[in-house]
# Entry
Amino acid sequence: MPENISRTADNISIADAAQLLREGRLVAFPTETVYGLGADASNVEAVKGIFRAKGRPADHPLIVHIPESAKLSDWAENIPEVAYILAEHFWPGPLAMILPKKTTVPLEVTGGQNTVALRIPNHPIALKLLQAFGGGIAAPSANRYCRISPTTAQHVLEELGNAVDLILDGGACSVGVESTIIDLTSSPPRLLRPGHISYQELEAVLQSPVAVPEILSGTPSIDPGSPRAPGMMALHYAPETKTWLCSSETIGIIAKQLQLSNQHLGLLRYRTLIPDSPNITQLTLPEQPDTYAQGLYAALRQLDELQLDILLIERPPLIEAWRAVNDRLNKAATLIE
Ligand code: AMP
Ligand code: MG
# Structure
């Protein structure tokens, strides 16, 4: 077992982890969404370490994790009442809120912005760590920049290796995609990133509208034979293998065409049956959005590691229940229509 993975995450390793954070070191820990790469959010040097380990540009803000909503006022100011209402309903849970930052919050944490993202994660290890540490833990997903977020401790190790001082192992994440982010500094509040908590759930609690972008459909590439054009769309949670997103209607045809040109394919399906063949490695995810999301990143990693020529993903329906999954797939793959 590599030295920096703690598989027990008992009280002793939690105390050790909190001590490492106090010393300005990096601790990866499980949350219900994905694994986070944590550092003391009030220690600028420690926070810079997160950006170094990930290779993340300095203007990409981090989410600060806090142990209880009473600490909201340590990080944010002019906090609207709705923040407390949402905290009461959804925390601990997969919701991050954007609020005006207190002047004491380092700009390194917020990517130079005057707002800060805050969340209480719902995972026993994350909560114990936050309570033992006492302060805020800045933690983006524990992967290298633009790569697939980790949903197990092993993924973190593969991504970051010795760049992280300790990895607390809490098993596989139950949600599997990053938190829902709501911006409470705009009126009406805006959904910045879809996640397990839907905007309708937020609206129901707020009893007022939330501004939501149309469901993204991605930028279609006209010719399935063309290479992925860099910068054509925001590839963010992407496998290293060329990855295409195809409709249920066309995925079989595209798979057949590619096989004819002797390509080795990885296929991520959920509904459509594709005939097995020696040139195809298939994985199946569940037909329900929540359980699909839970398994998505591990499946993408598994296929990516096989170093195939191309990965095809069967695109789920473009309906609200699949918003978070579709958002991640649009960032992982090029849409082929
Ligand atoms: P990650 O922790 O890797 O999931 O990334 C954090 C996400 O939170 C990024 O998508 C950021 O754009 C978003 N975020 C964090 N702080 C802010 C902020 N102050 N304003 C807007 N977005 C934020
Ligand atoms: Mg991330």
The CA atoms of residues 100 and 136 lie 16 Å apart. The pocket of magnesium ion (ligand 2) is lined by residues 140-141, 149 (CB under 6 Å). Residues 243-336 form a domain with the Rossmann fold fold (CATH 3.40.50.11030).
